[in-house]
Structure formats: structure tokens, C-alpha cells
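Section 5.1 Outputs to date
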Amino acid sequence: MANYKKITDRVEELIIDNPKTTPSLRWINIVNAGKNEIDYLRKNFNFDLVHLKVAAASVSFQRPMIFNGPDYLCLVLHFPIFKNDRIIAAEVDFFIGHGFLITVNNNDLKALADFFNLGKKSPDSLLSYSLESSAILLYEILGHLIDSCYKLLDESSLDINEVEELIFSGNQKEAVKRILTLRRNIVNIRRIMQNHKNILQKLMEMESSLVERNAIKKYYNGLVEHSKRIWEMLDNQKEMVEVLNNTNESMLNDRLTNIMKTLTVFSVIVLPLNLLAAIFGMNTRVMPFVDSIFGFPIIIAIMLVCSAVMFGFFKRKRWL
């Protein structure tokens, strides 16, 4: 069974207790930790003050970190979330020791909140319920957070397909905006996830009195493989976006070239007509056709013949 207690508005406690085993496991989830929450952790746990400052909501690390305490482990990780039409990093801090796990976050990670609610409603569905190990509970939490990254990658794949359709449907201007957004999001996810594999490999060295070390290695090795797979997918998506960007630029350049070619041909055809008009517009007595009643039609005919000759020349050269 699981005993749930709401300690404060920002602090929740979930005790996972399997009647078949003697120990129990405490999971404390803290949202938007402030001074009161830091004081709560300091009074109830033997955490280093430097590590407690990590959990403060006003402090944000730019990279994942791992700290070793006397009888606990402090861990800082980031996971990508979609917020305000862009991908940003959501930080979650872990304090893990024998019989307890503490998570501190800003309530941005829906996957973490969903898993906490699952523990309240159906604790026997958790692997940590049968083993009652904080190392296994951490493994399950990280697994759900990593799975949430796949959803973002799936959305990026759908966006890539839509951009491809935009490009080949002739809507290159809209495609440019979508490509820039995709590139920014993929770069942000790569920046957030780039050091996860190293941190997870360090967690494989954890020891537990309840779970064999080989079993812990097996579980966390699965997370490392997921991290590698996500990185490979990011590499593929990055390459696809670059290819689409190059294709879109080529099509834009081809379209611009055709426009410039059409305007140039039009200018070249009109140029001799302007020259003829200027010549026949001179007020001189020796100008042919000026005194003839058929002068105007003859001049127009000469202009049309010149235009037809130049048009035929361009056609023969396949410039049109």
C-alpha cells in the first residue's frame, strides 16, 4: 500500500510500503522550493547546506551534476519540455539515500507529476513497490522522464514531415519559419540531453542493500541505451532538417533565378523598342516614314518584327 500525506502546499510525501517486506520507502516531492522547504529538508535530513542550495527554486544549473554526500547522493538533471512555443530545460533535483528519495522541481515536468500520482493510486504497479529500493524508484522516475523525451521527438518528426510537404507544395516562405523553429528546438534538446549518458553511467555504480549490484547495473544500463537512442534520433532529425533547409534554399534560389531571368529577358526585348521610339521621335526632316500617312503603322511593325526576332533568338537558345 501507499500512504500519502500533504505536508505543506509545496511538499508531498508518499510512503511505499510492501507488507511482504520489512522496510518502507519514502518519496518526498517538493515543488518550487523556497526557504521554508529548504528548512524542512535541513531539519529532517542530514544534507550539506551547499547541496540544499541546489534545491532552491532561485538557483538553476546549466548542466547536469552529481554530488556525493556522506550517506546520500545529490543529483541535478534537466529534461526538455515544450513551453511558450519553444523547447526549454526543466530542472529536477534528486536526493537519494537509504529508504528515501526526494525530488525537487518547478512543477514543469508533467511526467514526474503523473508518475507521483500513479504511485498514490496504484503503488503495487511500481517496481519499487516489490523491491522497496530508492535506487529502483530513481530508475523508474528517470525512465518516465526519458520516455517523455520520445514524445517531443515524435512531434519533431511530424513537424519535419509537414515542412517537407510545405517545401514541395511551393510554400517556401512558410517553410523557412518552420525550419528555423525546428532547428532551434532540436539544438535545445541536444544541449539538454548531451551529458545524460555520462550521469547515468555513474549511477550504475550505486550500491543498495536491497538490490544486487548487477541488477542495478542492468536497470540503469537500459536507461543509458535509451539515452543513446535519443541522441541518435536527434542526430537523424538534425541531418533531415539541414537537408530540408538546403532543399528549401535551392528552390527559393531557383525561383528567384527564374524571376530575374524573366525580368532580364523582358528588359532586353524592351530596350531596342525604346531605342527605336527615341530615334523616330527625333524632330529631323530626313527621318523616314515621318511624312508618310502610313508612318506610324510601319514603325509599329518594325518594332514588332524586332521583338519577334529577339523572342525567337531567346527561344532558340533555350533561355525561355
